Amino acid sequence: MALLFTLLVLLLSTAITFSLAPYLFRFIGRALGAQLRSRTHQRRELLRNRAAAEEKEEEAQRKAATPTPPSPAKNRKSSTSLDDDDWEKVTPKDVADTPTPHDPSTTTDTKSKDASFDGIIAFFHPFCNAGGGGERVLFAAIEATQLRYPQALIIVYTGDHDASKSQILTNVRNRFNIHLRPARIHFLYLSTRDWVLASRYPRFTLLGQSLGSLVLGWDALGMLVPDIFIDTMGYAFTLGLCKWLFPTSVATGAYVHYPTISTDMLRSLHSEVESNQGLHAGLGKGLLGKGKEIYWELFAKLYSLVGGSIDIVMTNSTWTQRHMQSLWRNARTASGKTHPIEVVYPPCAVGELHDHIPVTLEGESTQRTNNILYIAQFRPEKCHSVILDAFTTFLQTHPHLSPPPKLILIGSVRDDQDEKRVYKLRLQAQPVKDRVEFVVNAQWPQILEALRTSSVGVNGMWNEHFGIGVVEYQAAGLISVVNDSGGPKVDIVVPDAKEGKPTGFHATTAQDFATGFAQALSLSAEEKFAMRVRARESSWRFSERVFSDAWVRQVEGMVGVLR
User: Fold this and answer.
1) Where is the composition biased (Low complexity) (predicted)?
2) One fold for both 85-101+116-347+545-562 and 350-541?
């Protein structure tokens, strides 16, 4: 009898423990969150005061540099430090599609909406100085946020210790032509960024980087607890951590460039074609392959659980949206998240490219060369090697093309690994070295010149999440030859809306790309011009204004979560 009683007590205790475990887990999270908020409160106030001081200094410098013209007193504006004239000064005037409060065609009416939100909006972007498409999204989002909520303080969590605030903002102006208000943005430097480097996890890389991002997220929130926490680099687990610590007091948002895991990745394990379906194509065979498949499926479930906690989710393309809906929709529904996963196309310099690069029939002979341009960071998944092979094949089959075509590879280099990758690509290009040009860490004027004079733009990545470079090709009037997958296929290089005619070519293998180059360059001048015009008109769907309006609506949703 005593033994039976003991067993009943143990079973009851176990049941109570399991039933209370979720409550205990949430309690621990809230307690740790309260501790972090208390510990970082002083820094929060310090940054607010610093922003106010820098704002006054900027105002004084502007007044000293620009004498106020005489005008009737009744027409003078108030002397507040955030009037509309100030915003004109920090908005790039030469970018036609960048919204300003004075632009009557801008759909985001910042004057009629409540702009009183003065909280802290933090962006989690550990590699903010990388200079790629993700960084364009980050800083265009910050610009739009500053215009919508001028009193808000912007924080960027970064691991770029080798770049100061002024250096980062200078790089943003030079690379993207985006002008931010310095007083209202601060950078907090993470000390644990190496925890998310793929090189740290030679095995179980996805899980390792995701768990490592929790360390990085703790590092960030340990420096400052914001009111809104936005991940713009794909570290969804940091948002799950934030929601565990601050379930109601911090709104979270995710801008998803690419799903960490996807059904396409699982399917690619069994692909027989290893060159065009990602780094893991064809690796699902045998016992180890089955183990990898199980590991990925379990990780996908964990990834879905994290996604269910995020308040606002945006994706950069229809392709990404479909995958995120497949992965996160059920978890979001179960957790009561009512905001749909929406597409917010990345901002592209469409207006500037339209202004700076003319597309005319005469230009086919006076402006355009037969050059083929590839703008992409020098990373393995960008498949530069495949494009080099394709270009070599193309030259072999078209040796007498005039003028002689060149392959121009423009991209940024982040670290030693990228530099080694460029070195290996140069070695691969040796047989045709006179026809291949590498441009590393190019400035925007260099990119503009390449876009102005090249004829074909190429994108070689399988399942590219979006493809800002492809939009730039279209806006500049290039004929695109892109991988037959992902955003370039589904969203960008699609038949034009008016007549349903092609705006470019799709390819899969190196031979396909070589054929695409030949098709694009063999068109008559009239056919090339017509395709360039169709692609150029299509590119307006991805302008900076369209992004700004869409982004602001999402941020308003995050502010609404707090109210």
Assistant:
1) 97-109
2) yes
